[in-house]
Amino acid sequence: MRVAVVGAGWAGCAAAVALAERGCAVTVFEAAAVPGGRARRVVRDGLPLDNGQHLLLGAYEQVRAQLALVHGGDGERGLLARTPLAVVPAGEGFAMRARHLPAPFGLAAGLLRARGMSFADRLATARWFARLRAGGFRVTPGTTVAQLCASGPRAAERALWGPLCLAALNTAPERACAQVFANVLRAAFAADGGASDYLIAATDLTALYPEAALRLVAARGGSVRLRTAARVAAIADDGVSLEVAGSRERHDAVVVAVGPHQLASAIGDVPALAHAAAAAAQLGYEPIATAWLGYGAPVALPARIARLDDAPGQWAFDRPDVLARAAPDASRPALAQLVSVVISASGPHDALAAPELGAACDAQLRRLLPGLPPLAWSQAIVERRATYACTPHRARAPSLLPHPRAALAGDWIDAEYPATLEAAVRSGLAAARALAA
Q1: CA distances from 418 to 1, 12, 48, 146, 391 (A)
Q2: Fewer CB under 10 Å: which end of the chain, C or N?
Q3: 59 pLDDT band (50/70/90 cuts)?
Q4: What is the CA radius of gyration of the chain?
Q5: Do 251 and 399 belong together in one domain?
Q6: Cα 334 from Cα 332, distance rounded (Å)
Q7: Are the C-beta atoms of 24 and 15 separated by less than 8 Å?
Q8: Contact in structure between 272 and 402 (CB atoms under 8 Å)
Q9: Which of the listed residues 196, 219, 248 is the one where a domain comes to its end?
């Protein structure tokens, strides 16, 4: 079977790998020069940055399995740096570290040994989670994260659940879907072992998965066509017609794996896909801003991932791996340390231009970490449509397989997880299974 995959983001790459492993003749079309979609490499002054700081959890099994498949090994060694989930403040504030204990004792032990919150609030937070777990992590439809947290201590929502909600769902707790958040909590804290661990990429996001996935597709006899836009022109009982560079190409089936905001242009007015296009058109979007800050001398961050005070940055990441892989560039000053400051969802920072955003994040670090060396280099990258807004009643595609010869893939297709790399990979694998069936 000859299958076209339109879009080489993480969902499209997962679908292409799965189809190639099943013996299909796969052709991947990607309009951009670099695969990865909304999680890809962006080179600035010789530094292989990412267009956003994507954090994986130990619970994200499908991503880890795909990394093992395309790279060999266990899917982590040399690719991901694993560290226990922790909230480590830059300066004063709530601090907690989850423990590697059978569920749910890992979270409970972390809460009871936390600082920056009264013992009564920590105990009440552990009881709140126990009630959620006892209810099977099922939440009343339409509930927001803020409403879900209202039955627990206000201090826990402000210091723990709210920041985790923004990091995982990229949507403010007042608008975010409580059921999806509960699904994330179940995956992270109701499983044994290192399910809640942070997994930090030790390379750029394109090298981490998309490039290796496309190499595997090519090794299986497939074709990868970057800088090539493809559009579904027609779907019939005997095949699919694509418009590519002004001409028509025929394939036996297609996986459409573009972002939901790109779906209308990728499928045109094909009737079989009209319902999916209508659902995608109803989605709202949230940005992710990342300020990359380079310093000529070491910066004393309290941890590899440090919690900030939301004015404006939310988390700071130490990224020595970027400097280790940097290409020579005469325009870049000598850097001893590179820090990425992440701001999830929309907010007042949206009004700042890129240089102003970098300066604001640098000023924030200086306020929290006195003695910071002078800023030597900065770059702010803002993805305006980084994720869909994960609200309780967000639109979903009516079907993963709207036609026997056409499947949809993308993080917005997965009903269980928010817009994460795990959701994207899960959807791509599901699309491949649906077509193969």
Answers
A1: 32, 17, 26, 17, 10
A2: C
A3: very high
A4: 22
A5: yes
A6: 7
A7: no
A8: yes
A9: 196
Tokens of 312: 């404006």
What CA–CA distance (Å, rounded) separates 276 from 402?
A: 8
Cα dihedral sign for 206, 202, 357, 376?
negative
Q: What is the pTM of this model?
A: 0.96
Query: Nearest CA to 431 among 261, 216, 256, 238?
Result: 256
Residue 370 DSSP SS3: coil
Give me 164's structure tokens: 């985790």
Helix spans in 274-352 (H): 274-281, 320-324
**276 and 290 in a common domain:** no
| Local structure of residue 158 (DSSP, 8 states) | I
Contacts of 110 (CB under 8 A, 6+ apart): 85, 96, 97, 98, 99
Distances (CA, A) of 283 to 3, 262, 263, 387, 409: 28, 12, 12, 10, 16
* Nearest alpha-carbon partner for 225 in 6, 1, 55: 6
Structural domain that includes position 226: 2-36+209-283+395-436
Strands (DSSP E) found in 284-388 = 285-295, 305-307, 315-318, 337-344, 375-388
Closest CA to 233 of 216, 250, 215: 250
Where does the pLDDT of residue 387 fall: very low under 50, low under 70, confident under 90, or very high at 90 and above? very high
Output the CA angle 92-95-97, nearest 5 degrees. 155
Please tell me whether residues 130 and 161 are part of one structural domain.
yes
Kindly report which listed range (33-37, 153-157, 190-194, 201-205) carries the lowest average pLDDT score: 190-194
Instruction: Give the pLDDT of residue 192.
Output: 74
Quote the tokens at residue 40.
Answer: 């890809």
User: For residue 8, which of 264, 277, 257, 265 has the smallest C-alpha distance?
Assistant: 257
Tokens of 42: 């962006």
DSSP letter for 327, please. P
CB atoms within 10 A of CB 207: 18
Alpha helices by DSSP H, listed for 262-353, are 263-267, 274-281, 320-324
Q: Are residues 309 and 353 in the same domain?
A: yes
**Torsion sign, CA atoms 118, 121, 127, 133:** negative
* For residue 104, cis peptide bond before it (omega within 30 degrees of 0): yes
